[in-house]
Design a protein that fits this description.
The protein is of the alpha/beta class. It is built from one helix and eight strands, in the order αββββββββ. The termini are far apart.
Length: 92
């Protein structure tokens, strides 16, 4: 009986880890121009959510995002402009 309980708990924990929001990638469009680290909603990111390591970023034409820190993302797409401030890096 203890083995079944332990296996059930282990399966539940693994399930939670597999679907944790911190590990899932998001598609994040730049809504407006702004600084990469801005948490102001829609300037540039929806809800002020700064892209994370596994995220895909889309910057449309007419939008300019200024990378003002060190950042890493999975994908960068679009015809917008990305500008790096001195000392900033963007790893894709």
């Amino acid at each position: 009986m203890k083995t079944k309980t332990i296996l059930a708990v282990a399966a539940a924990v693994l399930s939670l880890l597999a679907f944790s929001p911190s590990t899932q990638a998001a598609d994040i469009p730049a809504i407006n121009s702004g600084n990469w680290t801005s948490t102001v909603p829609n300037f540039p990111w929806p809800d002020g959510t700064v892209p994370a390591t596994n995220d895909s970023v889309f910057i449309d034409v007419g939008k300019e995002v200024t990378v003002d820190s060190t950042a890493t993302i999975a994908v960068l797409d679009g015809d917008g402009t990305v500008t790096l401030t001195p000392g900033a890096t963007l790893t894709v």
